[in-house]
Amino acid sequence: MEKDQYRPETNAVRIQTEKTWQMEHSTPLFLTSSFTYDSAEEMRATFADETDNNIYTRFSNPNVDEFVQKVCALEGAEAGFATASGMSAVFASFMALMNAGDHLVSASSIFGSTHTIITKFLPKWGIEYSYFDINKPETVEALIKPNTKMIFVETPSNPGLEIVDLSVLAAIANKHNVILNVDNCFATPVLQRPIETGAHIVTHSATKWMDGQGRVLGGVVVGRKDLIKEVHTFCRSTGPAMSPFNAWVLSKSLETLHIRMARHSESALALAKALENNPHISWVKYPMLESHPQHAIAKKQMSAGGGIVCFELKGGLQSGTRFLDALKMLTLTANLGDSRSIASHPASTTHAKLTDAERAQVGITPGMIRISVGLENAQDILEDILQALEQSK
Ligand SMILES: Cc1ncc(COP(=O)(O)O)c(C=O)c1O
Prior knowledge:
Blueprint: H1 8-14, H2 40-47, H3 62-75, E1 79-83, H4 86-97, E2 103-107, H5 112-121, E3 128-132, H6 140-143, E4 148-154, H7 166-175, E5 179-183, H8 188-191, H9 194-197, E6 201-205, E7 219-223, H10 225-238, H11 244-254, H12 257-275, E8 281-285, H13 295-301, E9 308-313, H14 316-326, E10 331-332, E11 342-344, H15 356-361, E12 368-372, H16 378-391
Parallel strand pairs: 2-3, 2-4, 4-5, 5-6, 10-11
Antiparallel strand pairs: 1-7, 6-7, 8-9, 9-12, 11-12
Helix pairs in contact: 1-3, 3-11, 4-10, 12-16, 14-16
Bound molecules: pyridoxal-5'-phosphate.
């Protein structure tokens, strides 16, 4: 079998920076700000794009390239660029591909900082936006205007786990010659490949499941070559580069992404099922539960449900804080996608400043708990949650 015929998870293990003279088995860390040349001619040719040599780590670096190549292989993307965080990936995808006078159509159920970029910063630079209800993709076409440049969506969304049919959005985007940009952070390319469904650009917070152990920040934008060229030019000049160390950590992490996502998904489904009839809970949301409103779409475009489970405590806001205080093993922290299970209560933390109505708009209810299901024994995770539920009344 030729190298380019390997399956994505094999590529995530086998893609490697060329060996140095030491013939190492594991890619070393290339901690260097810049790269050297043997002659003025080699330097000239490199600056003229006539060689593949590196110039400066803000532009490219062997560790960062290895990570990007692996994400491209996993997503089925032509090209990519890695950034310092997920937010710089989302921001770069907007700034590189839209101009003043353009219009963005975005689902309103999106990560809080992405919402801030769209509502506070894009208008400041003359880019208008329209929000649509992620549960009503049929409303998107009516929002498209002659200056619409991009449709942006997160599926499943953070934190509400709302899901949108990517093939519907891809058809609209292609009909109107608009870029479809998908934040694939919650599913990861192991569970969902938006480019195969017609997305032109995929963004990620690599900080979450890609790292998988809560160690480093990172982001990546992958997709069509001509679009990534613009992202590359924007990032090369403005400087949100991923550090070689973070890329080295993340590249190693990708080697185990497929087995980790299978285990996270298996434990999350078991937890969601076990909580469905709990007397302290009014609903449980998980893509692979039949009760999920977009379960049929989840089954069509995702191979498993991922590691996030949400549920609503009957006791509302106050039960939410009591639940967090009663947990013995699950961690209270502002992250997700870790090997250690994490609990969060958006209404009293990340989304505390919003009104109930504003929270409802982004899919957050007063007693909603978000669990990031880790790699501990699934029964230990369930038992901690059950005892905390007892005390949350
Ligand atoms: C869906 C999604 N996109 C983007 C981000 C931002 O990523 P980062 O924290 O790496 O900047 C997050 C962070 O939670 C997220 O959940």
